[in-house]
Design goal:
This protein is mainly alpha-helical. It has one domain. Helix 6 runs parallel beside helix 9 and helix 8 runs antiparallel to helix 9. The longest helix is centred in the middle third of the chain and has 28 residues. It is globular.
Length: 218
């Protein structure tokens, strides 16, 4: 009497749970994409995409840094440098995670321009990370904004309104990544979370004052 063949090895429950979560993420993302296609104009979603693109953000920040404005407002110079430091860190972290995870983008992703090799990968969303980093850091510097505007001889009212505008822009840009078919929902959530963590890290530990003091001590 022959013994029964050995049962195939069972995969760890964590893999099964992860696969289940990925399937849910894929289904929800596709549903949102299909539901919004007839409603939201693609041109509007593309405008949000462009507004959060690093190819636009970095030239703007560097141009302002090279302009006469920072000489009129040292506080503005500090905020811009910290935005630049955090954005470079964001590129390194997001690029490294994309390279390690290598999650494919949605199959319905169309006409996307790839700047770097890691742009082939979907997790996490670099756009969501960048815009949420910018929005969070600007809100952390809310107390400085009126002083910056005074230094530049501009009106200092409506700072709260400006913060709401920036938060709204970051939220819409992050959501647009799913609605354009560029990312899955979890890619955007993870990217947004990393952006917020990055903002707090730069604000507390990697800001211009901290870095310059360490350089002077060295």
């Amino acid at each position: 009497m022959t013994s029964p063949p050995p049962a195939p090895p069972q995969q760890p429950p964590s893999n099964s749970i992860l696969r289940h979560l990925i399937n849910i993420d894929t289904t929800v993302s596709l549903t949102l994409y299909n539901l919004t296609q007839p409603i939201l104009p693609r041109s509007f979603l593309k405008l949000l995409e462009i507004s959060g693109d690093g190819r636009l953000f970095f030239p703007i920040v560097i141009s302002v840094l090279l302009s006469p404005l920072p000489s009129k407002s040292p506080l503005l110079f500090t905020v811009l440098i910290n935005l630049l430091i955090g954005s470079v860190l964001d590129l390194i972290v997001i690029g490294s995670i994309k390279h390690l995870v290598r999650r494919q983008r949605p199959v319905y992703n169309k006409h996307m321009v790839l700047t770097f090799a890691v742009d082939h990968w979907s997790f996490p969303s670099g756009h969501a990370s960048r815009v949420c980093f910018i929005a969070c850091l600007i809100n952390l510097y809310s107390d400085l904004v009126p002083e910056v505007l005074i230094e530049l001889k501009m009106m200092s009212e409506n700072v709260k309104f400006m913060n709401l505008i920036v938060i709204g822009w970051a939220s819409l840009t992050s959501i647009s990544r799913v609605l354009l078919g560029r990312h899955f929902v979890f890619d955007v959530v993870a990217g947004a979370g990393l952006g917020v963590v990055n903002a707090f890290f730069v604000f507390e530990y990697l800001n211009f004052e901290f870095v310059s003091s360490k350089i002077l001590l060295w």
